[in-house]
Specification:
Blueprint lengths: L1 E3 L5 E5 L3 E7 L5 E8 L3 H9 L31 E5 L2 E2 L4 E8 L2 E8 L2 E9 L5 E10 L4 E6 L2 E4 L6 E7 L7 E6 L3 E7 L8 E9 L10 E6 L5 E7 L5 E7 L7 E3 L4 E3 L3 E6 L2 H17 L10 E3 L1 H4 L5 H13 L4 E4 L29 H9 L3 E6 L3 E2 L4 H5 L19 E2 L5 H17 L4 E4 L19 H19 L4 E4 L9 H4 L4 E3 L6 H11 L8 E5 L14 H8 L3 E4 L8 H23 L1 E6 L5 E8 L2 E10 L19 E4 L5 E3 H6 L9 E11 L1
Parallel strand pairs: 23-24, 23-32, 24-25, 25-28, 28-29, 29-30, 30-31, 31-32
Antiparallel strand pairs: 1-2, 2-3, 3-4, 5-6, 5-11, 7-8, 8-9, 9-10, 10-21, 10-22, 11-20, 12-19, 13-14, 13-16, 15-18, 16-17, 17-22, 18-19, 26-27, 33-34, 34-35, 35-38, 36-37, 36-38
Helix pairs in contact: 7-8, 10-11, 11-12
Bound molecules: (2R,3S,4R,5S)-2-(hydroxymethyl)piperidine-3,4,5-triol.
């Protein structure tokens, strides 16, 4: 809901529990008023009428108060907008008009032919504010050095604690919290993709007072799958602002020619007074309602052959794996890397999206038909944005890659990045992928991206080159076009595991590959971090072999591996041809159990009961009186009894029946005293289902 003050210069957006207010000052400066608990328009107007910021000779009065600080004038904060013409740098805008349409508010400013529109939208039924900016150039050509999506301003408090999700390959999305100090904390990616190093999300709680279930938490998440930056600044007067958008540096995002428009990605913000857990549930509900396509449909249990076979694949062997997967109750069988071109290792073939006839003599259709005949859907792996120099595509078009003239072309994993800003490259990929999806009944595409940008140049194009931004736009356009042409095909975003997880890609894919780390113990921490912002409905997790083949050789039971992977979208990724009949039968019972709890896990509300760093960790999902608890014990020491886990989100006056044992538990007791899990020893795990009576 958008409300407008009587003077037409105060605006208030409100959701179920929160409000966001701003006003226009006498000099057309756009000032922040409020972000926090829901208030009335009269409250916002009272705030607008209150005393303005105090003046100090060595500080800028506007700093820390503006909604979108532009470069120039009396400002010393990081500019959200920085543009230049050959003879001038900076912006001095005039307000033109506002428009309010549905749940969106648009404020239009202009400076010498450059139109700057700030967009605000509070999605109905959520407390998430989406913000973005449109630049339309009706004046002379401009260099846009920086155009952030938003600057968020927090209320003045004594101190703030910052939560972030950091990582690297095979160790993504690990939560770390630290006290914010004066100056700036910057996270981002210079790599051309979202990156394994940080998820584009931060959360802040005042004075470090929030807990999992209590306290005010502010969060911001960026919907962008390329290079990005989020700067969290504590200003000299202790005020905190968070500025974020596409691009890492300030030195050149793109050129805006006369008549051109640039729309920034969305930077979404959320206030919650339900602690970190409440904030996560609000993010999850928002993504299920407005970001993830068809989120009301549960994702099937998949099998992926990568860890079992790597590049050594053949049709016969895939058929054998498919038979075993079907026996285990799998619903979607995915052939990973190695089915196309000369792709018998990572040295060749990327770019040539035609079936390797030595491996699949009749093309993909016979295997796809076979898999369908076994009652499963059929999926395929691709990595369209890349090319191996040893490929037909590169031999024909060596200029289709990103490169700097006269410089080395850096190979990572023996591959180069295609320049997706080029229309001929976009058209080639569309034709190849459209033909692939039309060539056989394909239900699922795992879309991978296995190296960062290094030599991102486009010879002949004027500086600053749009290549960084246009790559992402071209990727989005390609995915949108493929989805429209093949509406029954689901897509997975993968980038060597979790290198491309953000709200931008999640709006175009059905699930994401969380990490190449499939060790079930490490996964608990990765999943714990992931769940801070994204829902289980999008989080793919596989049960693989023990000892773990990819990373650490850790030995763990099928029980532990399954319960770990059941916390998200369950998959199986082990070499099923080597599993014993007993293991396969056990796998089948776990898959059957997962199908029963799936609607609650994928569509329910998540409560993180205990964090994974202790010996005992647990999560709980609740949906319509159905409760699922997943608990894991890393190691029991000294024979100490394992503590019961206190449940959350239940009705204290109701009773709950345990579907495993038939025992009846009182809600108040489960909430206050907890539930015994029966876990003991090392790497033990349990699934407990309760139903409200
Ligand atoms: C990286 C992915 O994360 C893996 O699952 C697998 O698909 C390989 N790429 C294939 O090259």
């Amino acid at each position: 809901m958008v409300e407008i003050g009587a003077d037409g210069r105060t605006w208030l957006l409100s959701g179920p529990t929160s409000s966001y207010g701003l006003r226009l000052g006498d000099e057309d400066e756009l000032l922040h008023l409020h972000w926090g608990p829901r208030i009335a328009l009269a409250d916002a107007e009272a705030l607008a009428a209150g005393p303005g910021p105090e003046y100090w000779a060595f500080e800028a009065t506007l700093d820390g108060h503006e909604e979108y600080p532009v470069e120039g004038g009396p400002r010393f904060v990081r500019p959200a907008l920085s543009v230049r013409t050959p003879d001038r740098r900076g912006t001095e805008w005039r307000f033109e008009a506002y428009e309010s349409e549905g749940d969106e508010l648009r404020l239009r400013f202009s400076d010498s032919g450059l139109g700057i529109t700030l967009h605000y939208r509070m999605r109905e039924g959520t407390d998430v504010v989406e913000r973005w900016v449109t630049l339309s150039n009706e004046g002379p050509a401009l260099e846009v050095l920086r155009a952030d999506s938003a600057t968020w301003t927090l209320p003045l408090r004594d101190g703030w604690r910052l939560s972030q999700l950091h990582g690297r390959w095979a160790a993504e999305s690990r939560l770390v919290r630290s006290e914010l100090t004066y100056g700036e904390k910057i996270i981002g990616s210079r790599r051309g993709h979202t990156g394994h190093q940080h998820l584009p999300w931060v959360a802040l709680d005042a004075d470090g007072t929030a807990t999992e279930e209590l306290g005010e938490v502010y969060g911001c998440a960026l919907a962008w799958s390329g290079t990005w930056r989020i700067a969290v600044a504590q200003l000299p007067d202790a005020r905190v602002q968070i500025t974020g958008g596409a691009g890492y540096d300030d030195s050149g995002l793109l050129r805006l020619e006369p008549g051109e428009t640039f729309v920034t990605p969305v930077f979404a913000g959320l206030w919650s007074d339900g602690g970190f857990g409440g904030a996560s549930r609000a993010w999850h509900a928002y993504q299920r309602a407005y970001v993830i396509p068809d989120a009301e449909q549960d994702r099937p249990v998949l099998y992926n052959s990568w860890e079992a076979t790597e590049f050594d694949i053949s049709e016969e062997q895939q058929r054998a794996l498919a038979r075993r997967a079907a026996e285990a109750g799998v619903e979607l069988f995915v052939v990973d890397d190695g089915w196309f071109g000369a792709r018998t290792s990572d040295r060749a073939g990327l770019g040539d999206w035609t079936v390797n006839r030595d491996r699949f003599p009749g093309g993909l259709k016979p295997l796809s038909d076979y898999v369908h005949g076994l009652g499963m859907q059929f999926g395929i792996w691709v990595e369209p944005e890349m090319v191996n120099p040893d490929s037909e595509l590169y031999r024909a078009h060596p200029d289709w890659v990103q490169f700097q003239p006269g410089r080395k072309r850096t190979e990572l994993r023996n591959q180069l990045v295609l320049n997706l800003a080029r229309e001929d490259v976009q058209e080639y990929l569309w034709e190849q992928l459209d033909a692939l999806l039309s060539s056989a009944p394909i239900d699922y595409v795992k879309w991978d991206f296995n190296r960062c940008f290094t030599d991102a140049g486009w010879p002949g194009e004027a500086y600053p080159q749009r290549l960084w931004v246009d790559h992402v736009h071209a990727l989005y356009k390609l995915l949108d076009r493929l989805r429209a042409a093949h509406p029954t095909v689901a897509f997975e975003s993968c980038s060597g595991g979790g290198g491309r997880i953000d709200l931008g890609i999640m709006a175009r894919t059905d699930q994401v590959w969380t990490s190449d780390n499939t060790d079930p113990l490490d996964r608990l921490a990765i999943q714990y971090g992931f769940s801070q912002v994204h829902p289980a409905r999008a989080m793919a997790a596989w049960v693989t072999d023990s000892p773990n083949t990819q990373l650490n050789g850790r030995v763990s039971s099928l029980r532990f591996r399954f319960v770990s992977a059941m916390a998200g979208v369950l998959g199986v990724g082990g070499d099923l041809t080597r599993w014993t009949e007993g293991e396969l039968a056990e796998a089948r019972t776990w898959v059957e159990l997962y199908k029963k709890i799936r609607p609650v896990v994928q569509g329910g509300e998540l409560h993180r009961l205990r964090a994974p760093e202790g010996g005992l960790s647990a999560v709980q999902y609740v949906r319509d009186g159905e409760v699922v608890v997943l608990a894991w014990l890393q190691a029991q020491h000294y024979g100490e009894p394992v503590p019961p886990v206190r449940l959350r989100g239940l009705d204290p006056s109701a009773s709950y029946e345990c579907l495993e044992t038939g025992e009846v538990h009182r809600g108040a007791v489960l909430l206050h005293h907890g539930l015994r899990t029966g876990l003991r020893g090392d790497l033990d795990a349990a699934v407990i289902r309760l139903r409200r009576m």
